Input
Amino acid sequence: MAQIFPRWTNRLPLAAVIAAPLLVVGAIGFVWYYFSPKYTDVGYRPVQPVKYSHKLHAGDLGLDCRYCHSSVERSAVANVPPTQTCMNCHRLILPESEKLLPVRESWSSGKPIEWVRVHNLPDYVYFDHSAHLRAGIGCLSCHGNVAEMEIVQQKEPLSMGWCLDCHRNPNMHLRPASEITNMIWTPNAEQTKFAEMTKREQNIEPPVDCSGCHR
Amino acid sequence: MNSANPTSGHLDPEPLIAGNQTFRSVTERVCSIVEAKTPPIWFIAIGLAGSLAILLFGLIGYLVWEGIGIWGVNIPVGWGWAIVNFVFWVGIGHAGTLISAILFLFRQRWRTSINRFAEAMTLFAVICALIFPSIHVGRIWAAYWMFPVPNQMSMWPNFRSPLLWDVFAVSTYFTVSALFWYVGLIPDLATLRDRAKTKLRKIVFGLLSLGWRGGNRQWKHYELAYLLLAGLSTPLVLSVHSVVSTDFAVSILPGWHTTIFPPYFVAGAIFSGFAMVMTLGIIARRIFRLEDFITVKHLDKMSKIMLVTGMMVGYAYACEFFIAWYSGNIYEQFTFMNRAFGPYAWAYWIMVTCNVVVPQLFWFRKVRSSILALFAMSILVNIGMWFERFVIVASSLSRDFLPSSWDYYSPTIYDVGIFVGSFGLFLTLFLLFIRFLPMIAMSEVKGVLPQANPHYHQPAGTHGGSR
Output
């Protein structure tokens, strides 16, 4: 029988043996990185209907987060403020501003502004803001330094692995109740001692079983 | 492999291969099946089997779309036909490796006629088996959770769960069986390549035979590789169904939570596997006129293995009852009384009839040499083995610890359709196999011909006729 395969085909089996495991590892690595919220969600920064600056309000002017997101300490959800909250001030401050036109329109028509949600957890996750604040987790831990953001963007992946990292060891994120909304607070040298004490005193045991979050 | 004793051939009353075959006639006989024009019956058969396979995939599509609520599963019977069918198919898959590995290590030379298609049957049965656990998870897009791959959820499989052991046991079994089957095929693929008339066949079989030339060095390496693979597969024959049995035995349900399960399941698997090899073998030898290769003697030996394993299974049934009584555990006693006389008694007695009573006929030589009887019995055995798994799953689950949650399980049309469809897939793959690949291991059959014995002397008067 005449040769139908050229000589170089002798190397194919070796090449296949080397390539196959690389391909498998490569595929897993590809999915692990590119399919993860760390890659797909971090940096999400939708355009909002109003050019609202968190940097100006929460940073430069020093408004407390809870002035607008007022239900955060008592409810599972941190509410997006109604138009009336904006108008508390803006009836008097910059009442003619071009930028505030949609806010005034919403106020007069009674139709809410359709803010675009930035931090969106899947429906099958049970998350309670009030429980986290009660335990002493600051806004910063999940939302980043909002006081420096011109436009709010997602800073953390909010993936299950990311949640679990903190649930397994929350020590560096626990703060005194007075510092919850502080955007520039950093743990000091006594942090571990403080965290252990807080966990003991307040019975803080972050759940790591499935039904902790998937109820 | 050959006995050094030159007289051994004379002491053996019947040769392994009938019809006074020569090396050449073996090649001709086996290759002609693959090389001849496709017989019309093959098209009819694959038309039927393929339609059922399409039914299977259609129903799986509907299942994924609609969810496992289309099945008959309920609370407390959360495991229905999907698990029954999984265990059934994995069990059938056990004969191939037993024949190819264990019988090889024990130098049972009669295996050569049946090992190729038994191994193919193993692969196809394991493919059918793998479908069921994959679809019964409901959300099949999350099935990759069964594998320990890094992911954003920081989620790892639970290594204490026998369901995870299953994933590894069955996928290892499939990989090793596939390798074993393929390595065994290489010399025969080279024979087909050398006989190929068309360019396409030359290229395809050339690729598949990996440059096999049949030189001494190649045979030396080949036989060592085959021996090593046989050694690797041997523990798998025993381990895979043991692991499958732990799916049940590790849980605390009465009727499942018993230490006899692993050996009992392995015996049952070999029992059902041989029954399937016999069913397929009897059909194949008849359609392709392979009576000289798969002789009555082969069927006789398989019957004896089925008799032994069938009695082991029967012993296990009896032992379960004895232990239920001996343990003094009222829940265990209730479970077994309920099994034999409760709402699933009909299934229990089908199982006992097919698996314990029917195989007793194998004691009779007349039965062991009657093709028709063997064919009917092999099918009955597989019916019985399917019912064994059904009885285990349904009867234990339907009688929960809490009588208020007791319920009767009955399958829906979708359960039945998917099970019947899995036979379609199995037969489609098998039909493709017998059409395109040699279903008898030519090189190995040649090794057990009398001519292969170095001390072979041609009988007087037949000179020149052997090659």
About this structure: Chain A has eleven helices and no strands.
